Amino acid sequence: MALCSVASACAMSSAAAAKISTVTVIGSGLMGAGVAQVAAQAGQKVHLVDVDAAAVQAAQQRIKQSLQRVAKKKFEGDAGKTSEFVDKTLALLHCSTDSAAAVAESDLVLEAIVENIKLKQELFAKLDKVLWEGDAGKISEFVDKTLALLHCSTDSAAAVAESDLVLEAIVENIKIKQELFAKLDKLAPPHTIFASNTSSLFLSQAWAYFFSADTSILFYPMLVLQIIRLPETSEETYQQVQAWGASIGKVTVQCKDTPGFIVNRLLIPYVGEAVRMLERGDASAKDIDTAMKLGAGYPMGPLELADYVGLDTSYFIRQGWAEAFPDNPLFAKIPLLEKLYKEGKYGIKSGEGFYKYSK
């Protein structure tokens, strides 16, 4: 068995990519389900495993819905030639009250209605159903083909028995992760690469119980895969993992075994400073987010992002770093964050964080 970590995409040979054809993802949350989906889309057989059967079913449904949205973009029809500007512009403009008929032939739907989040959500929910009445054949084929490669269950033993790569995406608890790998290590084939989706723990801690000389870790944040390569990591394992990242269309970057690696090591302190600004009363949450979106070009403001990720997640990451590095002021306790966490205000998932959300 080899232990490894991936984080982005790079040049590779097709032979190297073919080495990993079956993947198991442990943990069916947003991140785990996302990894499972992109791997299945890349043509790899995937096992998505979770101890909670309901969570598995929910993840499977989310993946199906996500695939339908991907398919809509992937198989959009030809728009045809653009008419001459002056003579044909008005002929191309059709005004009506029938939104269903309009979006049925549209490649892009842009809403510009009243600034009411509930109304916007209801509008898109309605139009989304209309859009899928278009190229049903290609969409159905794409979704069905990908879902056929995705096997969801609660049986991790059966899943890892045939997997080339096993990726955990469970709770950020080092003991639980170690116990999981200790269990799966006995069940997986010798060639299997083990990877972790941790966003805050040390690689060396995650693999503490192992005595293999071939170790590394996987952190999977959105479009980039961060490869954390220890001195002991074999070149073969590193190349396999890097090739897998490229095969699912990701960009790979390397980083040392430091808390949070690149993304979270910069992101968590950044969000923390925004919370401290709000706590001191320097600016409102809306103004802080607006300033960073328009002033720094970020797609989301720091407090919006915190609500999206989950204030409980941010709280636990900061708590772990504060314990490991008590003298680092960037990891120091933030009373407002702790208060919201203890009140059960985790952000979008709970309906309230720095902002309130309608469920």
Domain count: 2
The percentage helix is 40-55%
Strand order in the largest sheet: 1-6-5-2-3-4
- Count of DSSP helices? 16
Quick one: biggest sheet?
6 strands, parallel
Shape: globular
Order of helices and strands: EHEHEHHHHHEHEHEHEEHEHHHHH
Low-pLDDT runs of 5+ residues are 1-18, 78-96, 208-217
Description:
The chain is of the alpha/beta class. The chain has 2 domains: 2-69 and 145-255, Rossmann fold, CATH 3.40.50.720; 263-342, Orthogonal Bundle (N-(1-d-carboxylethyl)-l-norvaline Dehydrogenase, domain 2). 47% of the residues lie in helices and 11% in strands. The chain is globular, with a radius of gyration of 23 Å.
Secondary structure elements and pairings:
Layout: E1 2-3, H1 14-17, E2 22-26, H2 30-41, E3 45-49, H3 53-74, H4 85-88, H5 99-103, H6 117-131, H7 136-148, E4 150-153, H8 156-160, E5 165-168, H9 174-185, E6 193-196, H10 203-206, E7 216-219, E8 224-229, H11 235-247, E9 251-255, H12 263-280, H13 285-296, H14 302-309, H15 311-324, H16 335-342
Parallel strand pairs: 1-6, 2-3, 2-5, 3-4, 5-6, 8-9
Antiparallel strand pairs: 7-8
Helix pairs in contact: 2-3, 3-7, 12-14, 15-16
Which keywords apply here?
16 helices, 359 residues, alpha/beta, six-stranded parallel sheet, N-(1-d-carboxylethyl)-l-norvaline Dehydrogenase, domain 2, Rossmann fold, disordered N terminus, single chain, three-stranded mixed sheet
